[in-house]
């Protein structure tokens, strides 16, 4: 019997392939970054062909490094950056345009028009999300309207859409030679096109964006023994592996953090931050600026839903310090630099590079560093950057408590930024609750592996997965209530300074 489960984790800045054993332990991995294409202010793109090439390389390298083959894997799961939009020719496999990334704001006028004429309320009711540049539908509409030949190809049925999960699944299962054009409800719920109640594409929502239904992938349960097909020998696995799971990255992390009970929450720290609260099989509508989304659907069981707070810029703000300001040479240096000062020195950094996501949803906002005096140094800016990650998470936690009526008692965290001990201590201080990091911090890939293994009986049930979860470290709050209140009041004041900067009407 095969001993391992594989997971492809296609993220915003990199793609990795990870291999896990029955205990949920990492057996092997390989990871490669891909280019961030920034054609103009507010535009963010990726090259889909580069992403597919990177995927093939990381799979082959991880397998070869650990002397493993396709036959050693009982199943494969896929997880991916959500909302990022690819439109390609199903006959040739060539993209018509670069992937438009979830952070991209070029569709601000599309979103504003939907809000003005009342269609936004229909989108909220049916899809659980507000009209925003974040989601896929406006990006599809932009490609249909601005790239020559795509509208005609879509109407012929040759131009097809997918988030990066669908793009990779199509290639892994054959591409132009019968590749499966599929997605799952977690990814579909990020498009503004899926009805949360029916878990199917909604004709009224499609009409808002003038998107032909034939462009869209078939929606399959997130964990399904038969729905996603088998890898082709010509691909990176050089043999057949059953693909049995597909989840958007934040839902996959929720599974990896074993948040299977209503009321359990996790926060993932990556390019952005994403806090999800499991609400069970109940669709909870947010009154506080959160998203209602599908958390997961296992096989023929009812879908489980979640409230989500999506924050556009957190880890990528640290990258900005490295790549644009050049005050650090690596992300890890942000902690050392920030430790040189005892507090933020009155400086707040609101990294609203793509506007503000939850709970504000203000496309007109732009980034600002406020409170500067001649006393301040680059260390204060580094500290303010780490605090911004944590204050934005507090904004979401406050909204989540308002919507759910449940106060956060402990926050489970995962993702790359959680290796920054100072940032995690600040998070506990700013929230006023303990912060808990698991032994396996890369829970996104682990969640995809769990969903894939559950589909084939590698793990019998979610209780087995809970038994695998172990805490690595816990941070306790150290700030006084007064420190916490004063700091948060300063943050909210700083957020106010970022608003109404860009005209989007």
From TrEMBL:
GO terms for biological process: glycerol catabolic process; glycerol-3-phosphate metabolic process. One of its GO terms (cellular component) is cytosol. ADP binds at residues 12, 16, 271, 315, 416, 420. It catalyses: glycerol + ATP = sn-glycerol 3-phosphate + ADP + H(+). Its EC number is 2.7.1.30. ATP binds at residues 12-14, 271, 315, 319, 416. Pathway: Polyol metabolism; glycerol degradation via glycerol kinase pathway; sn-glycerol 3-phosphate from glycerol: step 1/1. Inhibited by fructose 1,6-bisphosphate (FBP). InterPro entries: ATPase_NBD (IPR043129), Carb_kinase_FGGY (IPR000577), Carb_kinase_FGGY_CS (IPR018483), FGGY_C (IPR018485), FGGY_N (IPR018484), Glycerol_kin (IPR005999). Keywords: ATP-binding, Glycerol metabolism, Kinase, Nucleotide-binding, Transferase. Pfam families: FGGY_C (PF02782), FGGY_N (PF00370). Residues 266-455 form the Carbohydrate kinase FGGY C-terminal domain. Glycerol binds at residues 82-83, 134, 249-250. Sn-glycerol 3-phosphate binds at residues 12, 82-83, 134, 249. Residues 6-256 form the Carbohydrate kinase FGGY N-terminal domain. GO terms for molecular function: ATP binding; glycerol kinase activity. Key enzyme in the regulation of glycerol uptake and metabolism. Catalyzes the phosphorylation of glycerol to yield sn-glycerol 3-phosphate. Belongs to the FGGY kinase family. This is Glycerol kinase. It comes from Micromonospora radicis.
